[in-house]
Amino acid sequence: MRRPRLFGPVWLTSTALAAGGALAVWMWTRWGYAVRSTQRSVRMAPNPPIHTHESPPGGREIQSEAEGKGPRFHRTYSVTLKDATLTPDVDWRVYQDRLDAIRSASVNFDREAHHERTVENGWSIDRHEVELPSEPSGPPRADGPWEIACDLVRAYAFPDPSLIRGIFSPEVPIAGRPMLLKARFLGFTFWFGVRLTEEVDTIRETETGPVRVWGYGYYTLEGHFERGQIEFEVRKDMKSGRVSFHIEAVSQPDRISNPFYRIGFKLFGRRLQLRFARTALKRMQRLTTETLAANQARHETNLATRQISPPGSRNLSHPMPKTPFTLSPPTHEITAPSDGAGRPDARPRTAPS
């Protein structure tokens, strides 16, 4: 049996490596030296003076060049926002193009076929409710639980932000408003477009009496993993003062073209729906309670630190004392008769008949 000769392959491999190394050295010498030479000539050139701009009356609108960082033609400027209510990823102006596209997107189900949306036809019908802090009977109170909950629904602040965020322009009326949903799951980010329904603002007659109701909903569009509609309502029983938050949804999976997403939604979709509702109810209850407590504390602080001016004074005020005080009922002083020498007369006396 003839033994294979290894000299040929080894020689070819060594020759190829040597040729490749020589080619790399030549290319580095040919083009790398020119680039370094150009960079040195640029650095040696004197920089023109940095111009500053005068701020217009009423505030600064233009940053000076000295406030930037980096090379002259790739300079970076930054600003600091104080008391910002939105983070950069949820500022609706960044997503204006997507919001405009949602306006013309098609609905992915028949909104008028209410009779077809049944459990027998494969639809999921969910109703969730959580009780919020109550308030006195009658119309909703200013800064009360009902009004606080309505503000949270209006800002779409009740969902867990780690699961989903709503991006929209608050300047657009609620009815037909486009909203971009940013959902996250297992490290993936999904974008869905929805449109808001008509605003609900009414007094609803029930068996227990009138109920003050405010809320809205939204329905799904083409490209969503689901099709259906969800409603959010804040209700107050005007007779008992009970305040509650309600979520009512009807949905079913839509056609998902991506096989990976289709399998994932089939495995986790229903579980995510219930998790969304469960965390939204808890978050609404917590935020309403915390905001109500903060409003009450602020109200008590305003009462405790208010200043009262004495009668007839101008531009003069005296702060309330630091030690608490209470208004006691008027007291009546009883003077015992004396014996003539200034000492109280201790002789027993009988009550007048």
Which key phrases capture this entry?
alpha+beta; 8 strands; 353 residues
Principal-axes geometry comes out as extended
- The average pLDDT score comes to 75
Quaternary assembly: single chain
Task: Report how far the terminal alpha carbons are from each other.
Answer: 149 Å
Q: Enumerate how many helices there are, as a single number.
A: 4
SSE order, one letter for each helix or strand: HHEHEEEEEEEH
The proportion of residues forming helix, as a percent range, comes to 25-40%
- The stretches of 5 or more residues where confidence is low (pLDDT under 50) are 33-40, 303-338, 346-353
> Which strand-content bin applies to the residues?
15-25%
Roughly how many Å is the radius of gyration? 37 Å
Number of strands: 8
- How would you sum up the major sheet? 8 strands, antiparallel
Structural class: alpha+beta
In short:
By secondary structure, the chain is of the alpha+beta class. It has four helices and eight strands. Strands 1, 2, 3, 4, 5, 6, 7 and 8 form an eight-stranded antiparallel sheet that branches.
General description of the model:
By secondary structure, this protein is of the alpha+beta class. It is 29% helix and 20% strand. Strands 1, 2, 3, 4, 5, 6, 7 and 8 form an eight-stranded antiparallel sheet that branches. A hairpin with a 2-residue loop joins strand 3 (178-185) and strand 4 (188-196). The protein is extended, with a radius of gyration of 37 Å. Mean pLDDT is 75; it is low at 33-40, 303-338 and 346-353.
